[in-house]
Amino acid sequence: xxxxxxxxxxxxxxxxxxxxxxxxxxxxxxxxxxxxxxxxxxxxxxxxxxxxxxxxxxxxxxxxxxxxxxxxxxxxxxxxxxxxxxxxxxxxxxxxxxxxxxxxxxxxxxxxxxxxxxxxxxxxxxxxxxxxxxxxxxxxxxxxxxxxxxxxxxxxxxxxxxxxxxxxxxxxxxxxxxxxxxxxxxxxxxxxxxxxxxxxxxxxxxxx
Length: 208
Hints:
This protein is of the alpha+beta class. It has two domains: 11-139, Trefoil (Acidic Fibroblast Growth Factor, subunit A) (Trefoil), CATH 2.80.10; 151-207. The protein contains two helices and 15 strands. The protein has helices spanning 134-137, 141-179, and strands spanning 11-15, 20-23, 28-31, 41-44, 49-54, 57-62, 65-70, 80-83, 89-95, 100-106, 109-113, 124-128, 183-187, 190-197, 206-207. The strands form four sheets. Strands 1, 8, 9, 10, 11 and 12 form a six-stranded antiparallel β-sheet that branches. It has a four-stranded antiparallel β-sheet with strand order 4-5-6-7, with no helix packed on it. A three-stranded antiparallel β-sheet has the order 14-13-15, with no helix packed on it. A hairpin with a 5-residue loop joins strand 8 and strand 9 (89-95). The longest helix has 39 residues, at 141-179. The N and C termini lie far apart (90 Å). 17% of the residues are buried. The model is unreliable at 1-6, 133-137 and 197-201 (pLDDT under 50).
């Protein structure tokens, strides 16, 4: 079956620092401009994908450095894509029977680290080649930092709210527990005048 590679669904890969990945003769480097970024497209092969730069070339694991090589769909050109919890970001993974490595930006190049940590240097955003969407989809480094700050503030507030709710529940349970316990005591000035009382805290002048 003839497969026509037309790059209708092509996209650029943006790092969380706002840079775009560009293929070179020596590998992939991060760049700051949209126009310099390479267009990629995923070819779904069922159990894996090829990340193609054009109909004749694709990304390849070359001694754990990612390079652009002639397309052949060999084991070193087979990757998997994982959607990250963070909205619109993906991880790109190279798997074998013995190990799993993730695309990682290091020293302006993309390499494969043995540990897939999900850290920012292993997360990429697919930016589609649509001029009408560029203003919405392309984030500057400052905008990315602002979004990250907002996300962290929301997580911190959620943590504080959950902690407060747990504390209130504990206090409520303790209060209900003490209210259901019947205590007996006497007025310290008159031991003959004994009575029973219920209280969260012992009343003043009462001995247990």
